[in-house]
């Protein structure tokens, strides 16, 4: 099975966004403003983490042109608890996208906004785990018994597709959902663009990339229903 890790560059290094792109941080592109989610726990607007367009190989959302937006609370709420509403996954059909960047709700604390990193390429990696072994990644007992062997075949970075790198426990997912990717924000968890690699201001770069999900992994599950697509993000911390 293949997975896809984003090669990113910082928004500061490229011209301003003029069309739909896969990206991390900054402001979302195309999100209807009324769909910016609030935290189920503290009630504040969530922080925008990333957006990805549906793609037949790496990220199928069940309908061409759909875009998925990921949000999480950066205010110590229970992002590890799928019931708490401290994360949100918003999936928008192409016809419902709006033009341009979406401003955050007025009550959003701008200091919680993440720096923008834009995806310039998706780099394909192979995860050689055979199809018949796949179930072991989603079974608590089988995972516990085979963790080391399974982990050797899994890419432990930010990615779409592939198999999850569990850090504490296996998360089951409701029927109709599949594991669609995972999100980490250490500097080694992305493929870095030449601009980033060559940048002299290393502290600044790390400050940008190390935010979002620090010391943890966000697991993304999607139900690509034709009429009512849904998603779930669960974040575990080390
Ligand atoms: Zn919150």
UniProtKB/TrEMBL annotation:
Superkingdom of the organism of origin: Bacteria
Protein name as catalogued: DUF1963 domain-containing protein
